[in-house]
Amino acid sequence: MMNPADMLLSLVLLSVLFALVSSRIVPLIRIIAFQGIVVSIMPLLLFSAPTPGNIAFSLIMMAVRGIAIPLLLAYAVRRIGIKREIETLVGYHLSLLFGLLLIIFSIYLSGKFQLPMRQTSSFSLPTAITAFVSGLFLIMARRKAITMLIGYLMLENGIFLLGTGITGQSHSIVEFGILLDVLVGVMVMGIIMHNIQRAFDDIDTTLLRRLKE
């Protein structure tokens, strides 16, 4: 029987596949909110005896990753008035194939690395690799700035899962600093998307090529 950590990580893998094939922005925001909640509680599942400080920090991370950042994204989407990604650099069927092959490759590759991953979860490294590479893929394969931002958040989730899987604990100072950087990045990207929308009536990043000095 799968332990709770592996069950949650398997759901994260499924959410990555849904993110790769989803053209609608709101479901993508819900997916990144779900991933934010899972990666926030993952250290508690890997701890042998979580301390009150670790529990409090995980709750703070959950509030920011799973609630605050998705709400900011949803607010930006409502202000901009965009609902879906119309044109992509890579089609959704090809994206799904890429995601499936990536999961298989990540599972294979995780067996080749001699990393000191926590034995309580066999899915930590494959899920971290899948989320990291899928985040990069969304950044490169999508045109809308909001989708690229979601890809950046997914990439950061992969980095966090990798660090948590290796150490089996959360380093509050470092991770809180990263979390603040992510939150600031979301706010800055929201401003950028608003300006792109105001200038071009769209948030397709390819339109930035029209800008001249």
Task: Describe what you observe in this structure.
With about 210 residues, the chain is mainly α. The protein has one domain (about 5-210). Helices cover about 75% and strands about 0% of the residues. It is built from seven helices and no strands. The protein has helices spanning about 5-20, 25-45, 50-80, 90-110, 125-140, 145-165, 170-200. Helix 1 (about 5-20) runs antiparallel to helix 2 (about 25-45), helix 1 (about 5-20) runs antiparallel to helix 4 (about 90-110) and helix 6 (about 145-165) packs antiparallel against helix 7. It is globular. The model has no long low-confidence stretch (mean pLDDT about 75).
SSE blueprint:
Blueprint: H1 4-21, H2 25-46, H3 52-80, H4 92-112, H5 124-141, H6 145-167, H7 172-200
Helix pairs in contact: 1-2, 1-4, 1-5, 2-3, 2-6, 3-7, 4-5, 5-6, 6-7
- Contiguous low-pLDDT stretches (5 residues minimum) are none
Radius of gyration: 17 Å
Q: Mean of the pLDDT scores?
A: 77
Beta-strand content: under 5%
Summed up, the helix count is 7
Based on the model shown, name its key terms.
213 residues, mainly alpha, 0% strand
Describe, in short, the structure shown.
By secondary structure, this protein is mainly alpha-helical. The chain contains seven helices and no strands. Helix 1 runs antiparallel to helix 2 and helix 1 runs parallel beside helix 5.
